From TrEMBL:
NCBIfam families: CM_P2, PRK11898.1. Catalyzes the Claisen rearrangement of chorismate to prephenate and the decarboxylation/dehydration of prephenate to phenylpyruvate. One of its GO terms (molecular function) is chorismate mutase activity. GO terms for biological process: chorismate metabolic process; L-phenylalanine biosynthetic process. Residues 130-306 form the Prephenate dehydratase domain. Residues 38-130 form the Chorismate mutase domain. It catalyses: prephenate + H(+) = 3-phenylpyruvate + CO2 + H2O; chorismate = prephenate. Its EC number is 4.2.1.51, 5.4.99.5. This is Bifunctional chorismate mutase/prephenate dehydratase.
Length: 399
């Protein structure tokens, strides 16, 4: 029986075609990718036009905010002075909301600075606040004052921490700003000692990153024969000075700004201080980088005034406690705070100046004096201590 002629495989051609299609199908994809239109670069004039539009909107909103701030002043009625319109707890709340809302690209620090200046300008519509600080111009205390009150406040440079207290007590300044401790060198003792006799209250705190520079009139290291600086500045820069200028004479002065003022009068003199002092006194950096021992060198400042303000929701309370001289006296002072769940941030002892070997304890606590737990702890403490003095309840420093 003859066999039937063999038919070509039915799928031979299709397989070949599929293979071709598979090969061909890759080319259009590559071609499509290569021929995608490039994204056009933004036109500079268009971008600037949008920025101008945004600036107009921002300016209009700032003006509107200033009008509402003025209405707040009217709602409070006719008050005696600018200090009566100032509410640090409200400002702290506003700045915390700024931080909470921030999603970049600007940092929290930049936005807080912007809003602080807006609030400062709005408050100055009534009358600028008068704020005393440890001067002269160019000190870190002035920087702390500007950081907390803004540039619309009227700064009053004073010659000593004692004078800052005196001017606020006398009513010549609405508030004062004084240093209280440094992260590397500890407590500024004179500030604590002033609270032993003063009736002023702590109304706020400021944390300032401190960068110390070596500055002189010529800007040349080889010219320097003596250096002026505050004793704290010498301690904060001791390692660099020991390594680079071991034989130079070190002359302590009342402030770094005073040192800069003296250094500008001679080519062989130098000073230690911040960049603001460099600009204020027309000096040059001897070395471009800061010379402090600790890169994170930070100083804490206190804002002092004549009253305690309401709670901001995130506060610190400072108290001064005189204790009886007996065994376990310090334990008796601290245990009421532990029992009522109050955290202690800092404790520092100083001679009371009331009796020999008697000490007062400065204690920083988390919370406000109006908080029920704080009131209960202070009431319990009265049975163990000779005297309790609430130095102030104030908003914790905003980052």
């Amino acid at each position: 029986m003859a066999s039937k002629p063999r038919k070509p495989a039915a799928d031979a051609a299709p397989r070949s075609t599929k293979a071709k299609k598979a090969v061909v199908s890759k080319k259009p994809k590559a071609l499509k990718k290569d021929t995608q239109p490039a994204i056009a670069a933004p036109v500079l004039s268009d971008v600037r036009a949008k920025i101008d539009h945004i600036d107009r909107s921002i300016q209009a909103l700032i003006a509107e905010r200033a009008q509402f701030a003025h209405q707040v002043g009217k709602a409070k009625g006719k008050l005696a002075a600018a200090v009566d319109y100032y509410r640090p707890e409200r400002e702290a709340q506003v700045l915390r909301m700024v931080v909470d809302r921030n999603e970049g690209p600007l940092s929290d620090e930049v936005l807080v600075h912007v809003y602080r200046e807006i609030m400062s300008a709005c408050l100055a519509q009534q009358e600028p606040l008068k704020v005393g600080y440890l001067g002269p111009e160019g000190t870190f205390t002035q920087q702390a004052m500007l950081k907390h009150f803004g540039r619309s406040a009227l700064g009053l440079p004073l010659s000593s921490i004692e004078e800052v207290f005196q001017e606020v007590e006398a009513g010549n300044a609405d508030f004062g700003v004084v240093p209280v401790e440094n992260s590397g060198q500890g407590t500024i003792q004179i500030t604590l000692d002033m609270f032993l006799t003063s009736n002023l209250k702590i109304c706020g705190e400021v944390e300032l990153r401190v960068q110390q520079y070596l500055m002189s009139r010529t800007g040349r290291l080889e010219d320097i024969e003596r250096i002026y600086a505050h004793p704290q500045a010498f301690m904060q820069t001791s390692s660099w000075l020991r390594a680079n200028l071991p034989k130079v004479e070190k002359l302590p002065v009342s402030s770094n700004a005073e040192g800069a003022r003296r250094a500008r009068n001679a080519d062989d003199a130098a000073a230690i201080g911040g960049e603001s002092a460099i600009h204020a006194y027309g000096l040059k950096k001897v070395v471009t980088k800061p010379i402090q021992n600790d890169a994170d060198n930070t100083t804490r400042f206190l804002v002092i005034g004549r009253q305690i303000f309401p709670s901001s929701g995130h506060d610190r309370t400072s108290v001064l406690v005189y204790i009886h001289d007996k065994p376990g006296a310090l334990f008796d002072v601290l245990s009421p705070f532990a029992r009522h769940g109050i955290s202690m941030n800092r404790i520092e002892s100083r001679p009371s100046h009331q009796a020999k070997w008697e000490y007062g304890f400065f204690i920083d606590l988390a919370g406000h004096v109006e908080d029920p737990a704080m009131q209960a702890a202070l009431a319990e403490l009265q049975t163990h201590s000779a005297q309790i003095k609430v130095l102030g309840s104030y908003p914790v420093a905003v980052p």
